[in-house]
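User: Structure please.
Assistant: Input sequence and predicted structure:
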Amino acid sequence: MLKKILILFIVCFILYPSTFILVYSADKTWSGGGDGVNWSDQDNWYPTEVPTASDDLLIDIEDGQISGDQTFTAKSITIGGRESTALTTDSFVFGTIEPDEVTDVAVTNRSGGKITLSGSGVITLKGKYESSKQAATITSEPSFMFWVE
């Protein structure tokens, strides 16, 4: 019986390999290994690639000053925690952070995390926003919208 199952598996894998491709979301961590500042520099992320809508992101690097310099999407973002880290957006930046479920956390702003929304633009959270009570801040200029759906 085991031999028949093994043969069936091998035949299916050879004839229909796409059946066995797994799809998963890769977590990305800010490394600052590129220019050390711009969101759009793929070398600033580990693994190396600009984040997409399917990525859970961690930005927690000592004295990190990350600039959201382009429109972006992500599954979730965690800022700060162990290190003092700041995420600042430039003018006309639009972003969507959308976890799997609207009841899931979209942004976690931990101790030492700072989010500054400057210029004008819109960041939409299609989930929850969480902030630690220990020095996590979010500030926004009047022309910038931080929208939680």
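DSSP finds one helix and 14 strands in the chain.
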